[in-house]
Amino acid sequence: MKITIGADHGGYLLKNLIVDHLKNNGHEVQDCGTNTSDSVDYPNFAKEVTSSITSETAELGILVCGSGIGMSMAANKVNGIRAALCFNAYMGRMTRAHNNANVLCLGERVLGSGTALDIVDAFVNTQFEGGRHQRRVDLVTELES
Description:
This protein is α/β, with parallel strands linked by helices. It has a single domain (2-142), classed as Ribose 5-phosphate Isomerase B, Chain: A, CATH 3.40.1400. It has helices at 12-24, 42-54, 69-75, 89-97, 113-125, 132-142, and strands spanning 2-7, 28-31, 60-65, 83-85, 103-107. It is globular. The mean pLDDT is 97.
């Protein structure tokens, strides 16, 4: 699977861990940065990752900041993006299965690395169930217009 990932300074360490994990599991990963602890603006990274989803150059996106909140707020401003801030593997699995989320948001400062990788695996390895959930995703999409 092709996955795009980005982080601000509050999430770059976890981002790097996730990149290695995804590559070790056979995924193609586009890393949009950042790669230092120097302060940067998270909306710029959200824009780059969400653009890869809307342009269909990636199937899924992952965004990491300190709490995950800023990234999720920024990502959800983009039409066609369903970004979910998740704190456990159940949330990661259900947001794909029921909400067809296409961007996962994580907070480096609020998650342990093991939990974060469990969430990533649940998110990446779960398929959208469709059916009654499609109707609800369509209703969410209507809110964009």
